[in-house]
């Protein structure tokens, strides 16, 4: 049985009905082709649970990372869940297969001070060109609303619904918010702060200068909130390059990725409000366990403040191991906190 056609139909279903990103669709396509290449003489509808387990083990032995294996399993499981009922398979052969555990590293967030230096630009001229005002608005929105990069680039100036194009995410400036369609096609409202609103107003006043009148622009390009130099919807790569460029000009000693501003948004809110559920909603996390990783980051910040401020906290002078109170306390918390297991 040829499986190219059902694979294409499933991926089209994910794109049109579930609104998965082009990046995810491309990854899932590679994962299914990878499975086919592992068993070139066995059609996908004849693969067993044992063969899929062997596929995971083989890929792991070849050096594939746990995160890549987890995504491959998600692709295989999702495909069979969709396809099995259509062809009469008794069960999903990818059920109950687990990828190697993914180590949960802490998000790379900026400090409040670093974020202020990046966005306030104290040592740089105020933005005035269309590109500078666009960049300032993008970065303010990323930090103000805690958006993913793909969510930022998908924003439209307002809601558009025509026979040719319908907005998935858009700006509601009068309501000081953006409406965002995130992972899994879930829609959420994310508020915007006054700095983001001011930056957006400056950019919108100049946006027409970058919206080229030439042919070749799609309805989606013309609706896009943020534009590239050619007048089309801006790409994630351009956002990343422009942000890193600004970070260097501002003198930050770290590379700054757009997702760093999302992490900073979550970390800074937790430091101030300590409301995990609210941060979960604002980030659009389906599972609160995903949001809980920021509590570890927040605790490290608190322990560092304690280490620096408490007169008897630092053990640098009487601890031959060089271990600080923050490290000792963080280690103790990890051993007693059920979230660390």
Automatic annotation (TrEMBL):
- Tell me, which GO biological process terms does this entry list? cell division; chromosome segregation; DNA transposition
Keyword Metal-binding part of the UniProt annotation:
no
In this chain the Tyr recombinase domain maps to 105-307
What is a single Pfam family found in this protein's UniProt entry? Phage_int_SAM_1
GO CC annotations on file: cytoplasm
Which GO-annotated molecular functions does the record name? DNA binding; tyrosine-based site-specific recombinase activity
Task: Spell out the InterPro entries in the cross-references.
Answer: CB, DNA_brk_join_enz, Integrase-like_cat_sf, Integrase_catalytic, Integrase_recombinase_N, Integrase_SAM-like_N, Recomb_XerC, Tyrosine_recombinase_XerC/XerD
Membrane-crossing ranges are: none
Segments carrying the region annotation (Disordered) are 309-341
According to the lineage, what is the superkingdom?
Bacteria
Protein's name in the database: Tyrosine recombinase XerC
Note the Gene3D superfamilies from the entry: 1.10.150.130, Intergrase catalytic core
* Oligomeric form and interacting partners: Forms a cyclic heterotetrameric complex composed of two molecules of XerC and two molecules of XerD.
As recorded in Swiss-Prot or TrEMBL, the protein's gene is named xerC
Alphabetical keyword list: Cell cycle, Cell division, Chromosome partition, Cytoplasm, DNA integration, DNA recombination, DNA-binding
**Role noted for this protein:** Site-specific tyrosine recombinase, which acts by catalyzing the cutting and rejoining of the recombining DNA molecules. The XerC-XerD complex is essential to convert dimers of the bacterial chromosome into monomers to permit their segregation at cell division. It also contributes to the segregational stability of plasmids.
PROSITE patterns linked to this entry: CB (PS51900), TYR_RECOMBINASE (PS51898)
From the Swiss-Prot or TrEMBL record, state where the protein is found: Cytoplasm
